Amino acid sequence: MTQIERIAAIRKSIRQACKKAGIKALSVRNGAGTAWGWLAIWADDGCCFTDAEKAVLQSLGISYGGNYANMSPEEVRRRMG
Predict the structure, then answer these.
(1) Which of 15, 48, 71, 72 would bridge 39 by S-S if both were Cys, CB 3.0 to 4.6 A apart?
(2) What global pTM score does this model have?
(3) Which residues have a Cβ under 8 Å from the Cβ of 14 and sit 6 or more positions away?
(4) Cα–Cα distance for residue pair 67/79, rounded to 1 Å
């Protein structure tokens, strides 16, 4: 599985969890340039994660800050094999 395929699978699982929770999907993007391979997750409004968005991230075991969460390339590989 390539890094792009791993990121796509994680993005899909986040979107499915958001849909199940009844919230709009979070923004999930692959980093660019020297950050390529890092997965960036942003709050829907770009401001702060709502309680529902935090619950989705927690249910998936993803740590987050105020409006942003990320995963290193190593973490992406560890999660997806």
Answers:
(1) 71
(2) 0.83
(3) 25, 26, 28, 41, 56, 60, 62
(4) 22
- Supply the DSSP string of 34-67, one letter for each residue: GGTT-EEEE-TTSS---HHHHHHHHHTT----SS
- As a whole number of angstroms, the distance between CA 29 and CA 25 comes to 12
Q: Which residues are within 8 A (CB) of 32 and not within 5 positions of it... i.e. 6 or more apart?
A: none
Name the residue among 67, 31, 70 with its Cα closest to residue 49: 67
Rounded CA-CA distance 69/35 in Å is 14
Count, residues in the chain: 81
Q: Is 2 helix (H, G, I), strand (E, B) or coil?
A: coil
pLDDT of residue 52: 92
pLDDT tens digits for 3-55?
Answer: 889 989 999 999 999 999 999 888 898 988 888 889 999 987 778 899 999 99
